[in-house]
Amino acid sequence: MADSIRLEVTRYRPETDSEPQFQEYDVPLRKEWTILDGLNHVKDEVDTTLSFRWSCRMGICGSCGMNVDGEPKLTCATFLSDYAPGPVRVEPLGNFPVVRDLVVDLYDFMEKLPRVKPWIIRDDDVTVVDGEYLQTPEELDAYKQFSMCINCMLCYAACPVYALDPDFIGPAAIALAERYDLDSRDQGARERLDVLIEHDGVWGCTFVGECSAVCPKDVDPAGAIQRYKLKAAQESVKAVLLPRGAR
Amino acid sequence: MTEVRVYHRPVSVWWWTKKRSYFVFVMRELSSIFIAWFVVYLLVLIAAVGRSEAAYQDFLDWAGTPWVVVLNVVASLFLVLHVVTWFNLTPQAMVVRLRGERAPAAMVIASQYVGLAVVSAFVYWLVTR
Question: If we measure between CA atoms, which residue out of A142, A222, A223, A226 comes closest to residue A182?
Answer without folding.
Answer: A142
